[in-house]
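Usage

Read records sequentially. Each one opens with the input sequence:
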Amino acid sequence: MRDVYTPDDPSFIAFLGGPPFDRTQREREWRDIIGSAVSRGVTVRRARIVSEPITDYIRFEHSVTDSMNIVAGERVRWLPRSQASDLCLPGNDFWVFDDHLVRFGHFAGDGSVTGKELRTEPAVIQLCQSAFEAVWLRAIDHAEYKPL
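and closes with the structure output:
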């Protein structure tokens, strides 16, 4: 739900014209993790809520989604932030695992990681699941999303 993440990521820096960075190992590891889950029947969905016009970081994310996320087996959708105004969303990025665990990611204003939080309370899980489903239904499939 942020417009900038990990500003010191060497892959992002390379995208901006900095020193080259070989993404091969990173993408292989992600494909192994997600591919293993998908082969066991797990559905992995990622929804990205973004401001438009998009930031350089989101432009970078969009450019690597095919080789990083889609190839690994994720389903990815994008929702322009202007279309999320009437949705009730948690204040932090989150992942829901197996309907019983939520992992929140905490970030500083510049997008650097400051921590994570694991929650198992049914009300928190339900809030995150409901928010995600609302976003997912409204969002645009990666193959069709053309960022501004």
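Summary fields computed downstream for this record:
- The first strand starts at residue 45 and ends at 50.
- Residues 11 and 17 are 10 Å apart (CA to CA).
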